[in-house]
Design a protein that fits this description.
There is one protein chain. It contains 14 helices and eight strands. It is an alpha/beta fold and 331 residues long. The protein starts with a helix and ends with a helix.
Length: 331
């Protein structure tokens, strides 16, 4: 075969492969979107009674919303997401007798990063800012993914404030250690590649491809509306925040420090979560003294949508138990 013919055959193979991948992508999206979806018309804009803005410790702004009356439950979202993550909980918790409070992390949603940018220590400070600015007592902190890391960082950085203002913590699809922890050089390399690599906005803006990319965060029972919401939130997150906030987590390792936490703790994870695998949920539950563990069969990373009723019940039951215990002990 001549060189010219080999080139032609090679191009034909590449074209055929690309066509097959494209066809498979379209078929997968069509199958997923054919599901019955009770949330198809839901815009996932969380209900609230009040909106709040607080200055952060380094000159930024923290935006929060609150709804209901009763013992406070503070909701802390994951990287590239926003308070929209908690639309279902902002609907449920006030009716269950709690004051639901959700806040946007720095650089996300309505919040603005301060002069020191994105770092684990700043996540801890921002949790502190919400608790102190709203003068919350007997609070249960619920952290999803990066939001859970923020909760852990707060607990180990400001234990005296935690003891004064918090009655329990819920770690939802989160972790205390990332795979690159202990490999600083590799973490810097990956961070540099991320900074210099192409922005994912273009891919996410492609409705079908962006849908499939967002589908990775879910287990086997994902609804199309929930996947689309996730795509929207990531697109709403500024490019600089997506890169900087993600880079700050690359070398995370709080495992030794969280062994000092003396606070009722509930760890919830999905057995099909590929972003914060169940092994990490087990690690946290085994490390924090007295922590309880709930693993959700076939659950993915976005359990607040995938298993809304279960997550709501777990959070509210835990909060009633620890907040009642805290109140009766005079804390």
């Amino acid at each position: 075969m001549s060189a010219r013919n080999k080139t032609f055959v090679g191009l034909a193979v590449v074209a055929a492969t690309a066509a097959a991948v494209w066809g498979a992508e379209q078929a997968a999206v069509r199958r997923s979107r054919r599901q019955e979806d009770p949330d198809a018309l839901n815009e996932f804009m969380p209900a609230f009674d009040e909106t709040h803005t607080f200055p952060s410790h380094d000159g930024g702004v923290i935006h929060a919303i609150s709804r209901g009356e009763g013992p406070p439950v503070v909701l802390s979202h994951g990287v590239t997401l926003s308070v929209r993550t908690w639309a279902k909980q902002m609907e449920f918790l006030p009716g269950a007798g709690f004051r639901a409070i959700a806040f946007d992390h720095r650089g996300h949603g309505g919040s603005v990063a301060g002069s020191t940018g994105h770092a684990i220590e700043n996540l801890a400070w921002d949790v502190r800012t919400v608790l102190e600015s709203m003068d919350l007592r007997d609070a249960v902190l619920v952290g999803h993914s990066m939001g859970g890391i923020a909760v852990l960082a707060f607990m180990v950085t400001f234990p005296e404030i935690a003891a004064e203002r918090v009655s329990g913590i819920v770690m939802l699809s989160s972790m205390a250690r990332t795979p690159l922890s202990g490999h600083e050089g590799l973490a810097r390399f990956v961070g540099a590649i991320s900074d210099r690599g192409p922005d994912v906005t273009g891919l996410l803006n492609r409705r079908d491809l962006g849908y499939l990319m967002s589908r990775v965060g879910f287990g086997s029972e994902a609804l199309p509306s929930h996947i689309e919401l996730t795509r929207e939130m990531v697109l709403e997150c500024p490019t600089e925040t997506r890169r900087a906030a993600g880079r700050a987590l690359l070398n995370l390792d709080l495992v030794e420090k969280i062994a000092s936490i003396r606070m009722p703790t509930l760890v919830i994870g999905g057995t099909s979560d590929v972003l914060t695998p169940p092994a990490e949920a087990r690690r946290m539950a085994a490390t924090i003294p007295g922590a309880s563990l709930e693993l959700v069969p076939r659950g993915g990373h976005m359990l607040m949508f995938e298993r809304t009723d279960l997550v709501n019940e777990l959070i509210s039951s835990f909060a009633r138990r620890v907040q009642h215990s805290s109140a009766s002990s005079g804390s």
